[in-house]
Design goal:
Aspartate Aminotransferase, domain 1, 2 domains, 7-stranded mixed sheet, binds pyridoxal-5'-phosphate, globular, alpha/beta, disordered N terminus, 17 strands
Amino acid sequence: MNDMTDDINLQNTSAGTSLDLSNYWMPFTANKQFKAAPRLLKRAKGMYYTSVDDRQVIDAVSGLWCVNAGHGREEITQAVTKQIAEMDYAPSFQMGHPIAFEAATHVAKVMPKGLDRIFFTNSGSESVDTALKIALAYHRARGEGQRTRLIGRERGYHGVGFGGISVGGISPNRKAFSANLIPGVDHLPHTHSLEHMAFSRGQPAWGAHLADELERIVALHDPSTIAAVIVEPMAGSAGVLIPPQGYLQRLREICDKYGILLIFDEVITGFGRLGKATASEYFGVTPDLITMAKAINNASVPMGAVAASRKVHDTIVDNGPGNGIELFHGYTYSAHPLAAAACIATQKIYQKENLFERAASMAPKLEQAIHSLKGEPHVIDIRNLGLVGAIELQPREGQPGARAYETFVKCFEMGVMVRYTGDILAFAPPLIVEDKHIDEIFSTVRKAIRSVA
Ligand SMILES: Cc1ncc(COP(=O)(O)O)c(C=O)c1O
């Protein structure tokens, strides 16, 4: 028994019972700060959360970039409920269950042509580590096992596995673990420049030349040592960094020239965020591997996946032993029956309600609304693409992130949940968003920005 519970950690819930906040060590959270003034949600439906003190809070960021079909979808609830009653779990190694295959077929249907071999994981981080391992296994299977180098990008976010933080480029995520990052990794420069692209609408015109840095990295290490390049086609977590026009096309060309695999991390962009099923389709650039998670099943049950091209899949599987395992990789919960049931139900909603097209049709409204905040105090950039937007604030002298944090808290108190990274506020509402919701979000954000010094 632990009787050391701190008074500050005893909060009243709406049910009138006392909630001990001390045991749960929260991820990517300022624990002490949070527990001194918690923000607790208890219900969600459609575009809104309900907080424990019974306030309606509009969800301007789809939970954590993941609830694309909106909250509390009845079809998903029913599918998961039916599945847990019918078969709660089935092993994923050397055994299968039909809905795992059915879920893969649904996902494959919306991937770019040819990327239709689906490996299931439980998160974006696992998807990234899986994709990196598949890339290494691919080169080994084709007799180029010396291709081991992985190229990421500054300010890239690829989750929190050792592979993901190694190719990732967010320094606080790497700092404490720097001596143990995986070896043989290099990084492209990021593409964000306020000097050249502040207040751009859609893709900035400046910056495609930054893809040519890959040529420099290739020349330095020799192409025969490089396995893969991994980038987010649009970087979300580092603060919405939108690829310059022509940049991704150029990366694809250079990878093709040197036999390097291109991995798009679509954990955020997958399933309609930019108005198409994938960012690959949106930008017209097809990678060799796509990582995904989050909206794959509306975030209702943890699930991720990697879509591999037939070339990559067949090279590994066809070169494997006749009756042996071809890829020594997988998870106890790969294609977990509940996650797979939720995935199928979610993909059916996306199709039936044309939610990807809906996202595209709402994008101009988001663009107009967010850019109307130009000129508000401390706003140094506004950018947008598809159903994603960001407002960058001038950092306070010596206190990076403080202004955005206070604005985020103010927004929550005023009834809007946003996300912030550094001094950037990010927006990515569920694809069911309507004009009136966008108006509600940005009129509140305007007030919040004005109220923070
Ligand atoms: C591009 C990208 N990759 C990977 C991840 C990690 O996903 P997870 O938190 O599910 O491990 C994220 C999470 O936001 C992401 O945005």
